[in-house]
Amino acid sequence: MSKITNKDFVHHHVHSSASLFDGLCNIDDLVMEARGMGFPGLAITDHGTVANWIKFIQHCKATKDKNGKDIPFPPIKYILGVEAYLSADHEHHSNKEQTDGRGGNRHLNLFAKNFKGYQNICQLSQKSFTDGFFHDPRIDINQLAEHSEGVIVGSACLSSVINSNLLYARYKEAKKTCSLFKDIFKEDFFLEVMFHGIPEEALIIPDILKLSKELDIPVICTNDSHYLKKEDAKSQEVLMAMSTSRCIHDPKRYRFPYGEFYLKSAAEMAKVWESVPSSLSNSVAMLERIDHNDIEKNLFGGMRLPRFDVPEGFKNPFDYLKHLATEGMKKRGWSDSKKHIERLKIELDDVQVAYEHNDYDFSTYFLIVWDYINYAREKNIYVGSGRGSGYGSLLLHCLGICSGLDPIKFNLLWERFLGFSEQKFILEADFGF
Length: 433
What we know:
Blueprint: H1 27-37, E1 41-47, H2 53-61, E2 77-87, E3 106-112, H3 115-130, E4 138-140, H4 141-146, E5 151-154, H5 161-167, H6 171-185, E6 189-193, H7 199-215, E7 219-221, H8 233-243, H9 266-273, H10 277-287, H11 292-300, H12 317-332, H13 338-358, H14 362-378, H15 394-399, E8 418-421, E9 424-427
C-alpha cells in the first residue's frame, strides 16, 4: 500500500463534549485539531444528541477565529452524525419490560446524507428523548425505517446489535440484522471495523469482513475518538469516574482499558488496517456522498418557517396578511389617513419584494407571530406593547402585534425593522415579547 496521508482518511466515529461525561473534546478544539492535521472532513457522533451540530458546521467552515484572526488551516467538510441507542421496542420503559436493562440499548451511527437526512435524524433524536428514554435516549427499528430517507448508517462499536451478536458467536443473527439494515438503507449502510487493543474487537473482525463479502456491504475503519491526543487518556478516566460518581482510585470504576480512543492520524489507522485498504478509502468515499449544498441551502438559506394555513378565500399568506392589516387600519381609525395608507402600502410592498426577489417569507413570519399574540390576548395572557425596531412598523400595529403610540406621529422608522442591504432584506430586531 502506498504511503497514506491525512488527506486520504476521514474520522467517522467521534465524540465531542455533547456526549456528556464521555466526550472530552470541545467542538472548537476538535475541529481545529482536525483542520490542523489536514483531514478533508470530520464527523461527530455524539450519544443520542444533535446538540453540537450547528456549532460544528460553523467551526468547520470558519475562516477567522473568535478573536477575528485568520485561521491558518483550510476549512474542513463536516459530517453530521449521532450514535443512536437502538432497542427492540422503544415503548418498553422498565427493567421488567426490557429484561437486559441498559444492555438492551444497542449503538448505531446515523449520518445526514442531505437535508432530508438532517431532518430525519433530528426527529429521531427528539423522539429518543421524549418517547423512548430508558437509561439512554432510545429508538427502535420501526422508527429508524420510518425516518430512513437521506440517512447513512454505520454499524458502530462493540455495543452494536451486529457486533454483540458476533461477540457471542451468533453469526446467523448478525447476518440477519445486516440484511435488514441493507434492505432499509441500501448502499448507504457501512460495516465499521475498529481496533483499540481490546481483545473482543480482534475476535469479531474476521466475521465483520466475512459479512462484508457475503452481503456486499462496504467496510469502513473507524476509531472511537473521545479525546484529541493519546496523552489525554488520563483526563478521560477522570471524566468517566465523575460520570459514575466513582473515585479515580476505585478499581471498580468504569473506564477505557486502553489509551487508543483519540483522533489518530491516517498513518496510524493504516498501520492497523493496511490489509483492508478499502476500509480506509471508503472513509473518504462516504464523505463524498454528503450533499453539503443541500444541507446549507435549506438550513441557512432564506427563512425556515412552519406552514401557516390561511382561511378559505385567500390565495396565500401575503393576501391574508394584507387583509388583516387593512382591517387593523380600520380598527385603529387610520383608514382615512393618507399618510397611514401610503406607509402601509410601502411596508406591504417591501414584504412582497423580499419574498419575490430573495425568498424571505415575512408574510408567514408575521402571521405566525400575529397568531400567538392574538391567542394570548384572547386567553387574557399578558402581552407587552412591543419593543425594539419592530415598534416602528405600522403593519405590526395594524396586526395588533404592537400596540399603543402611533409610529407615524412620532416619526418611527419602518426601515430600522426591515432593512435593505446588498440586495437582501434583513430582519434587524426581534419582536421582544
